[in-house]
Amino acid sequence: MVDICDADEHVHECIPGAINVPLSRLCKLPLGPVIFHCRSGAQTTDIAPSLTVAAKGAPGHLLAGGIDGWRAAGLPTRFDTSLPLEIMRQGQLAAGSLVLIGVALGFLVAPAFFGVSALVGADG
């Protein structure tokens, strides 16, 4: 099994025995049957043609639902709660907090603070 998530996501939670090969290193896959997965299955579905090429002619399959679907089916994952949240999740929490603060200050202090939320939204 090949986990195409970034390394920090793979370390945080993974399917036991899955190897981590982020998208940037797909050309370095070992030969043999390959099952690709990501967190939710969306990323692997979006890039399925690229994954077929990365498998170098070996039988390639996509894990429906990704690691979330694997866990929902009651199959084991290795989860390390001692690690911080993945960097992407940290960024999402920071952006959401800034939007919330901007809206709250816009209503409570001055409408100009709505600009904070607009700036965060414009970055996406």
Structure commentary:
With 124 residues, this protein is α/β, with parallel strands linked by helices. The protein folds into 2 domains: 2-79, 3-Layer(aba) Sandwich (Oxidized Rhodanese, domain 1), CATH 3.40.250; 87-123. The protein has 6 helices and 6 strands. α5 (87-108) packs antiparallel against α6 (114-123). It is elongated.
Q: Please state the average pLDDT score.
A: 84
Q: Describe the main β-sheet briefly.
A: 4 strands, parallel
Given helix and strand content, the structural type is alpha/beta
Write the CATH homologous superfamily of the largest domain. Answer: Rhodanese-like domain
| Tally of contiguous helical segments | 6
Instruction: Report the principal-axis shape.
Output: elongated
Strand order of the largest sheet: 3-1-4-5
Structure summary:
This protein is α/β, with parallel strands linked by helices and 124 residues long. The protein has six helices and six strands, in the order E-H-E-E-E-H-H-E-H-E-H-H. The chain is elongated and about 60 Å long.
In terms of topology, how is this protein built?
Layout: E1 2-3, H1 7-12, E2 13-14, E3 19-20, E4 34-37, H2 42-46, H3 48-54, E5 60-62, H4 66-72, E6 78-79, H5 87-108, H6 114-123
Parallel strand pairs: 1-3, 1-4, 4-5
Antiparallel strand pairs: 2-6
Helix pairs in contact: 5-6
From the structure above, extract its key features.
6 strands; elongated; Oxidized Rhodanese, domain 1; alpha/beta; 124 residues
